[in-house]
Specification:
Elements lengths: L12 H17 L4 H7 L4 H9 L18 H13 L7 H15 L2 H13 L4 E4 L15 E5 L2 E11 L7 E7 L9 E7 L6 E6 L11 E11 L10 H37 L1 E2 L2 E2 L4 H29 L5 H25 L10 H9 L9 H10 L2
Parallel strand pairs: 1-4
Antiparallel strand pairs: 2-3, 3-7, 4-5, 6-7, 8-9
Helix pairs in contact: 1-4, 4-5, 4-7, 5-6, 5-7, 7-8, 7-9, 7-10, 8-9, 9-10, 9-11
The chain binds flavin-adenine dinucleotide.
Amino acid sequence: MSYPTRRPRWENDDLSMFRDAVRRFFAAEIVPNDARWMQQHHVDRSFWNKAGEMGLLCPSIPEAYGGSGGSFAHEAVVSEELAYIGCSSFGQVVHGTIVAHYLLAYGNEGQKQRWLPKLCTGEMVGAIAMSEPAAGSDLQGIRTRAVRDGEHYVLNGSKIFITNGSQADLVIVVVKTDPDAGAKGVSLIVVETAKTPGFSRGRVLDKIGLKGQDTSELFFEDARVPAENLLGGEGYGFIQLMQQLPQERLAIAVGAQAQMEYAISLTLAHVKERKVFGRALMDMQNTRFKLAECETLSRVTRAFVDECVEKHLGGNLSASEASMAKCWATDQVCRVVDECLQLHGGYGYMNEYPIARLYADVRVGRIYGGANEVMKELIARAL
Ligand SMILES: Cc1cc2nc3c(=O)[nH]c(=O)nc-3n(C[C@H](O)[C@H](O)[C@H](O)COP(=O)(O)OP(=O)(O)OC[C@H]3O[C@@H](n4cnc5c(N)ncnc54)[C@H](O)[C@@H]3O)c2cc1C
């Protein structure tokens, strides 16, 4: 464990107290269990419930729906604290920062009362299923169909790469309700997995990193879902995704930034300890220059990500800025972790060293939440 001494400029005293509590909780509940979670490829369900009791699953959902009544800054603290202990197993960002916010933004009162309190306690684990075998970046190309049949929708199709997939009790499924209407034919339907005949889960996918996450395939074969589970109206799905993706992308940037800081602190500890040619590795000019570059990249990235967090807290973050933050931070963390691994020598290649796991974990940041090439398209469009 290695924690930075500076606090982000958006962090006030209340957030610092929250951070202390999160830090203590994670040290007690995650650190002794994470290696086992990586082996079993999912977090214990009892941990979800404990995190719910601590108010960490949905920290920015209003208290009226069972949340902690905080802001995106609380989400950011949770995310950073996971990174500072090298934990990539817990899918809280998808559950609380993403899924719960779709329900809050587009759910009617009945839907919010029905689902949000259960997400807050961990009685339900949430997932969002956009990607399909033939459509990831190009979401308009999804094929999962939802056809209205009386008081139900009947879903057919499959989803892939779904975070929390093996554990999820509630999945927001992106479907086509009108295949001829392009983006206007996309809708969001909430599937309660236990109540949905025709829903099934595939295997937990074997990834190079994020070993503790249960990324899975999901299948819908004439799966019948009550029509009242439609989120926000038919044909609004694409707009809803475009409105929510900036928060998801900012959350990815926040996590990447904290991973960068973690990588540097791990490496500093190693190079001060490790002796080569009779002196500390830290005393060699190459080491000093590489770490100077890494720290500079990290500080520059921190300045921009923090500015984006502040803008988001004030409701002023543009989709283009969120894309810049995601694209930049996830690119830089890969550079920094690569340099840091090099400074660990052969130990950096051993999975028992956190820098090795980090190397595999950070790579996905350039792919998910929209590939970085797609981010550049979105940024360029706004120029
Ligand atoms: C660990 C993990 C967890 C995930 N979790 C979820 C989840 O919870 N829910 C979910 O719905 N999805 C999830 N995903 C899926 C993820 O969002 C997609 O993998 C991602 O959007 C890319 O889609 P794709 O894999 O189909 O790649 P493709 O769309 O086939 O793209 C392949 C590559 O093509 C290039 N490319 C694509 N579009 C453009 C463009 N416009 N211009 C230039 N180059 C381009 C990029 O380099 C891209 O990486 C997850 C993925 C992973 C790996």
